[in-house]
Amino acid sequence: MSKEEFATDDEIRHASKVLLPKEHCFMDDEEKVNIIKCNESKDIVACPGSGKTTTLLAKLLILANRMPLEGNRGVCVLTHTNVAIDEIKEKLGAKSDVLFRYPNHFGTIQSFVDKFLTSPYFIYKYGNKLISIDNERYRAQFDKSQFKYMGKKAIAYCHRTQSKGFPYTISLKDFELDEDNKCIRLGLDLSKADGHAIYDGLRRTKDYSIESGYLTYMDAYDLAELFLSDPDTTNNIIDSFANRFQYVFIDEMQDTAKHQLDILGKVFDSQKTIIQRFGDPSQSIYNKVSVEEVWTVKDSLPINTSKRFGDNIGEVLKTVCIKDNSALKASPEINSLSPILILYDNPLQVLPKFCELVLSRTVNYQGEDLSVFEVSKKERRPIKAVGWVGKELDEKQQDRYKLASYFGDYHKEVKKKDKVDYQSLKSFLRKIDGATIKEYRNKIIDAMLHILRIQGVTYQKNSKRHFYTKTTLLAKLAEAELLDKFNKECSKWILEIDNEGSDIDEIRNKVKAFFLNELFPVLEVNARNREVVSFLDSEIDDSVIPENAIESQNLYCYPGIEDLKVEVSNIHQVKGETHTATLYLETYYQGRFESESITGQ
Prior knowledge:
alpha/beta, 4-stranded mixed β-sheet, globular, 6-stranded parallel β-sheet
């Protein structure tokens, strides 16, 4: 198919029937037709609520109906959150199944880098599989090793620089030295004894944490960069991805950080793969540097008409953006309320006032005058209150507002469902809604692998020492004629874990006894090791709360009206969502209130 003809008119009409409400068609919108038919590398710049994700869905639906593509090539879709991926699954239904099978890939940029670059490079460099790429688990591993490897001077240095998040935020790139043997990023002069000692202590501890299989999210990008540092390697990877993916779509491009953009630029060649990047520079919320430094919009196609709001909001948005936004067009079909500014003396009064407005302000909705609350119920869309800073309140600085200033019960969200602390055997044995037998069994195996990592237990192969993986652990048990017994005991434990009435302490004691009496002697684990004992006996960390508990905790319930509930959330958690009404809560960020930085607009 030629570059001008990604899709036929009939294919676009079919996509409209699947994705749009009745009597609506992509063919009525020239901007969207241009994008759907575009079959070359382009940037797509779309205003808020423009329907860019739905437009991308149309392209994906058309591709799904053509699978497999010529040469068995596929499509790669990269996002920053899973909202777009969930929307694809929801709107395309069974049609999406083919899109989530090989050779296609759907996921976040982080998961793409982890899967295709970091993990294979880690196996190549260290001979073992990764345990985790997670900041919290890395921090726990770092804490265990810092007193063993870091040394007093490095520990003191970290205490002095805690405001920077040291030592947990130190990346591999931070250890780079200049020609004068100085580490500029850490402020250390290695020609001086103290500087050298601090540098060596930090480096030893960092290397041990990584070699143990625990990486931060940034470490994953640093290892990926090392993987790509050889031009021959990069060329091979570009060819591999070009052979696998005919199309690459990147959503929310404005939130792509420089280190992400650098890697994507190295692995995808727009001459070999069609790359289309969707976003809006005016909507960046993740980048700490200006968007111009990161995403330079090239040859682009626009979507200037919003389907999310009417003129009352559109006219305001034209004036408050940093860049010229005069091309923005609101939807004539939507009767939005004008934005309302709430001034207050006490932040705890804001959410009740917002609810009063939601109940009292009316709009004409499909011929009826309805309150915003009634529209929310009809549309089944939420009412939310969001803000930038969701950290815990500082008792000494109550005037530096965070979300908890407005809603005292606010608890900072965790990002992973049913996230646990993983620092106790008990945490691996929790009941998980919807978990399969295989998933439970893998958790128990992971617990044993965790113990082996804690103590640094390895095995020898080809004159090298290696950490155990699931495969090599099970092979060791089979060699010791313990695998059948382990599997039988696992089945019993899993039945008990999944039983609502079971006592987790009793289950923990049974697993612990089997580990101590059967596995430890075979694997040469020291049962008296302080860290091993702590892992076997510790309780679950109550500060790590399952996501469903946090969701219920972060709901403000308006007194007297049972079903008026406002979810209070960090703005990053609602990226890409559409709400009937949204309250933006001002917070204190980087030394000032947000309103102090937008007085010009």
